[in-house]
């Protein structure tokens, strides 16, 4: 019969081997449960699903913020506005996430790229497909665009991104240049109108509408946004960064479709509950990409959004 010390070292050794195997499987984008993480309470979402919902809700909001900036400040735009809104929104998250641990930032940004991969690859009816003539990029293009911006933000540290996301070498080679170009535009947009904004004292309000009753486990779905006032704080930080020229409202509400938009007539950004539910459905039902060092945090509290 093994002594307790032998038993614990044997278990640690086994856990280390499993973790190494899991890291390998994660690189292959295969699902694998960490043996050391505590099980979350049954009435809350798994932490990685909650993070996926939060990150993609934040990106949806920041994409609409990109439209807001372009419209409100009549910014010059070369190329499609939808591409510019993606770039402004995604780059802004690097600023807005600057106080988070690096592993959490990487995981959230990868979740955003991963959403477009899932959206691209999931079977869907023709009416839901983005077609070549649309003003939006194809889901497949949005996936590679965002994966490239993520990799280009720090190609040395994030050298695992091209392999994990299957970003081809021909595109990956110049991702640092793409990131710098987008960064330059963001810096310009966030500094060009500060003087006006200080005079106008812009503010932002986040409101939550009633559930339509059609979304199951509604409170569970909303929890990642409400925890630590996550969405409210992001919206307030966004105002400090971009100085919108007038008061804005972020309205989270039931609208009958998984949508989001900016209404320039009333200065309102709308996020639909159905969109959050769609994020949850994808995260819960399809295999997801995992950053490799998600497996290096054996003491992480699985009940919080922070990986480590
Ligand atoms: Zn858009």
Automatic annotation (TrEMBL):
- Any idea what this protein is called? Metallopeptidase
Endpoints of the signal sequence: 1-37
UniProt KW keywords: Signal
The beginning of the lineage is: Bacteria, Pseudomonadati, Pseudomonadota, Gammaproteobacteria, Pseudomonadales
What InterPro entries does the record tag this protein with? DUF4344
